[in-house]
Amino acid sequence: GIFNDLGMTKEVSNLIKENNELLETKNALNVLKDDLLVKIEELSK
Questions:
Q1: Given this model, what pLDDT does residue 7 score?
Q2: CA torsion through residues 12, 13, 18, 19, sign
Q3: What is the dihedral of CA 17, 23, 24, 27, to 10 degrees?
């Protein structure tokens, strides 16, 4: 029924939100990683 559909919609949007947050975290970590790699390269010159 309609209540089931609403529940599913909420679940799906929660999953999408969670996924977006994970992607943001992953991107932030990648930026940090690249930054660290550059610093390491500079140090090993």
A1: 82
A2: positive
A3: 180
As given in the structure block, the two tokens for residue 6 are: 């609403």
* Euclidean distance between CA atoms 31 and 6, whole angstroms: 38
pLDDT tens series, the chain, 45 aa: 666 777 888 899 999 999 999 999 999 999 999 999 999 999 999
Cα–Cα distance, 24 to 20 (Å, whole number): 6
Sign (positive or negative) of CA dihedral 29, 30, 33, 38: negative
| Structure tokens belonging to residue 13 | 């949007």
